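User: Fold this, then the next.

Assistant: Folding the first:
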Amino acid sequence: MKRLIFILFSIIIVGCNNNYKKSDLLGTWDCISITDIETGEISIPEDDDTFIAEFRSDSLYLSTEEVYAWQIKGDSIFLNGDLSVCIKELTPSSLTVELDVFGEQRLTFKKIK
């Protein structure tokens, strides 16, 4: 029983210890899907309605012509110091984040540059 508790505790600690670096996010990311977490509804942007996020070392540029200062701490991205986005998955070619602005949403991106 003690061994099982130790294994579960170890998995929890390892699973919560995502310390991403700024360099992991640098580049241009194209949003390929948006999921409404409450309803489970998935929307896929059409070709003429793309949503691009470009992470530069000091700024985040969105295709909506918005620019944010950003920093990363642990598994969260902080925009302009007051808005945070939780990183759920980050690989060299894909990024999945969750945010709660007008309801909780999960956005999935693929790296294009």
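Now the next one, as you asked:
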Amino acid sequence: MNRKAHRTANLFDWTFVRDALKRAMSSGTKQVLSPGPTKESLDLEISVLINDIFGGEILEARNNKGRHFYNRVNGECIDIDEEEIYNSSDVINVADIPVSRSDKPLDFKREEYSDFFLRFIRAFEETVGLEDNYQTA
């Protein structure tokens, strides 16, 4: 399914999430992960963030480069590394396994994750234009 067809088929546009993630990651004064984030640990941190906010499940795939984490939310694979969002029935490999956060040690510090989480929320609100429409208590 191409991006335009996806947008008309669903109400939520995941490009907002990608844009907000880019802004949240670039606005941090420290590295998102410490020390020296790896691609794998960054995948996991982003997948945890998506899971915390949008629900669904975290999936782990193994390839020749190591482990890769992505999400499935409401039947859609959400892989921030990919340009397209696609229906999970089209692409889920039987070798891709759900990740239980209680079984998987998180490779990042909770304080840094909390900071990243809040930066993402602010960036997402700005991206979709919510910051002008409401006030927090």
